[in-house]
Amino acid sequence: MEEPFFVCVYKKDGMPIGKIVSPENEFPESFEEIKVKSSDGDNIEEKASEFEKIFESYCNSILSYIDMLPFIASISPMVGDAIRSVGLINFLKEKSGKTIETEGRDIFEVPSRFYSDFKEIADSANKASAVGRQIPKMMIIGIVSTYEHHLARLIRKILSSNPDRLTSSDKQVSIKDVFDAKGIDEFKEIVLDKEIDMIMRNSFEEQVSWVEKAIGIRKEIKSEHGDWPKIVELFERRNLFTHTNGIVNDRYLKKSVKLKVSGSSALVKGQELFAGSKYLTSALEIICEFGIKIIQVSWRKLSKEHAKIADDRLGDFGFELIERGNYGLAIKIFEFFFYLEGSKTEERRLTCLVNLANAYKLNGDSKKAEKLLDQEDFSVVNDTFKICVASVGGDCDEVVKIMKRMGIDCDIGEKAYEDWPVFFHVREKEQFKDAFKDVFGREYIPSPKKRRGISNAMRKNEFRAQEKKSDEPLLLSPSAVERED
User: Fold this and answer.
1) What's the pLDDT tens digit per position in 136-186?
2) Do 134 and 278 touch, CB atoms closer than 8 A?
3) What phi and psi values does residue 342 have, to the nearest 5 degrees?
4) Strand bridging mode 98-101 / 15-22
5) Residues whose CB is less than 8 angstroms from the CB of residue 17 and which lie 6 or more positions away in sequence, other chains included
6) Across all residues in the chain, what is the average pLDDT?
């Protein structure tokens, strides 16, 4: 019999305010009880959990963008196209007295009394198209703002962990701030807020330099991060979208040339930059990877005793990316896991190693996956690891053998065979399905594979003019946009 799980949804004035999932039907009576319990605990755990909260919040925010916003961006141009091609054409067909149709064009003869109605519909179509082009720009602004919000939280934690950086500061504080504060603690908060605000007003590069010095990083992030020119360009483009609607200025030109950004030689002052599917997908991945790295490095530097928690959260995030079909980004996250210094638990190390190999293979690099697994001795590990390794290697005979040996009471549970991405490589084989039925007494029902390539959904509905552009940075001239309207 399949075991159920229980979800308790708490409500206030009839509206959901929170939920708890549990294998047992036992829940606190109110959501307030949960909040009280979660606030208990000693100071050490609270301090450690602040980094964890920042990391989890950042992961969830970025995953929300990865999951949802690309599809919204792909729909927005479709809306403009629908108004333009459907609404306008239907109006012309309805009102025209005569139509001349050829293979390349249709000419509608419309009575002059309908001109004002025609103009209103045509203007609405143009406005809808303009809005469709703006939405991807707003998403770029949004994802960069999400990073900056979490960076500000990280800086607050860094300063709180090392108050000497504030007390030794020679920065001026106004008399008004002193008298406005109700006590020493509030005054400290005022000073802290001002310090954070000052740091956040600096450029992206200056903010990163501040973090490097504050936590004592020996190597410059700039030299270690492979996509440094791309992420700097992203912040500069965000500034253009915010202040000039994407119109290229001298600052952006000089920065792009200096960084040797791909496509910068084709840029001309006054051109309008956009955020097409390729650019937006790249931006999401770049900002995700960089934010993950800077939070993780800071966390480990200032809270060394909680490196295991940081390892676990990083590994879990990489697995979530695999589940979403974002294999390239998952590879970067797992490679970063092994790049980080410090001892790791053997279970977490092996889990991340198998997941990295699986990401390599799912991303089309079977040789790299095989090479990585061959470097490890899996003869001494438990059956859970052995069956995963066998599956990633495509050895269905070995998978079936281990599945039968583990039996119905296996540690991973029968749903793992249907859900886990490591089994993608063998689950279509009849031999595997038959073995599953023999062991668990039911038909094998695989869970659907997650979304593959978030850019694909966007490219189907991308602007025709933008589809012709293949090099970074993606751009359109104002005249091209006008013709597209």
Assistant:
1) 899 999 999 999 999 999 999 999 988 777 666 566 666 666 657 666 777
2) no
3) 110, 155
4) unpaired
5) 10, 11, 31
6) 84
Q: Which long-range contacts (CB under 8 A, 24 or more apart) does 185-191 make?
A: 191/166
Structure tokens given for 359: 């990401």
342-345: long-range contacts at Cβ-Cβ below 8 A with a sequence spacing of 24 or more? 342/300, 342/304, 342/307, 343/307, 344/308, 344/311, 345/308, 345/311
- Picking from 201, 190, 192, 202, the residue whose alpha carbon sits closest to that of residue 166 is 192
Q: Give the number of C-alpha atoms closer than 13 A to the C-alpha of residue 304, restricted to the C-beta side.
A: 5
- Cβ–Cβ under 8 Å, residues 473 and 268: no
Q: How far apart are CA 162 and CA 148, in angstroms?
A: 21
Class of residue 148 by CB neighbours under 10 A (exposed 0-12, middle 13-18, buried 19+): middle
- Decide if 140 contacts 234 (C-beta within 8 A): yes
Angstrom distance (rounded) from CA 283 to CA 260: 17
* CA gap 190, 177 in Å, rounded: 7
What is the DSSP pairing of strand 475-476 with strand 272-273? antiparallel
Q: Could you give the CA distance from residue 433 to residue 443 in angstroms, rounded to a whole number?
A: 7
Sequence-distant (≥ 6) Cβ neighbours of residue 36 within 8 angstroms = none
Residue 473: asked if its preceding bond is cis (omega within 30°), the reply is yes
- Residues 58, 147: Cα–Cα separation, whole Å: 7
- Residue 397: phi and psi, rounded to 5, are -60, -45
Cβ neighbours for 198, distance < 8 A, ≥ 6 positions apart: 171
Please report which confidence band the pLDDT of residue 30 belongs to, taking 50, 70 and 90 as the band edges. Answer: confident
Q: Which of 333, 338, 328 is nearest to 317 (CA)?
A: 333
Tell me the C-alpha distance between 400 and 434, whole Å: 9
pLDDT, residue 475, reads 35
CB of 369 closer than 8 Å to CB of 357: yes
CA-to-CA distance for 279 and 260, rounded, in angstroms? 17
d(CA 385, CA 50): 32
Residue type, 468: K
DSSP string, 29-47: SSHHHHHHHHH-S-HHHHH
* CA separation for the pair 328, 294 (Å, rounded): 19
3-state secondary structure of 139: helix
Residue recorded with tokens 């390599």: 360
The DSSP result for 430-443, as a single string, is HHHHHHHHHHHSS-
pTM: 0.78
